[in-house]
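User: Hi! I'm working on a homework problem where we have to compare a predicted structure to a textbook description. Could you give me the structure for the chain below?
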Amino acid sequence: MFDRFVPGAVRLLDVLKRAASRLVAWLAGVSRRPVPVFTSPQAAWDHLAARYTYTGDPVYGVVDFYWHPEVLQAALEAGTAARLPVDCDDVAAWAHAALSAMGAAPGLVVLYEESLRGAHCVCVYRWNGQAGAIDTNGVHTLPDLDEATLCAHWSGLYAREGFVYTAAVPVAYPF
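Assistant: Happy to help. Predicted structure tokens:
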């Protein structure tokens, strides 16, 4: 029964999250820098990984929003990204912008865990005939981007935490 409601609930929450993201960026009046154009998904990840630190959103994700990729890029360049709560959705949105700029075909997907204890946002892509994804763990080469492949891959990555992902729901790019 849970599986029938997940896509609709995810999309509704994502609409609210996108609206909050735009409002926070507008109210904060934060600076922006264009996301550079990279030569590969790995080059994009290397740029990001050298400059950011994973930090969960406040209140265990209850207060969650996307940092605009250009806001995150400005913080990366200024060396202030460690002061921002940068988690999986922020990395995925930044990766989406970076991959779009280099001509890949990216998309955002939220993976939901069967007990509802955890959700994970990733940027999936097709580039030069290869399927892959970027998340807070790095670049992942995948055989396909279907729900079963995505859930199995991240269930394996997070097996230590006991997470078993059962739904992979595409969501709109927030910006």
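For your comparison, note the following. The mean pLDDT is 85. The chain is about 40% helix and 20% strand. Good luck with the assignment!
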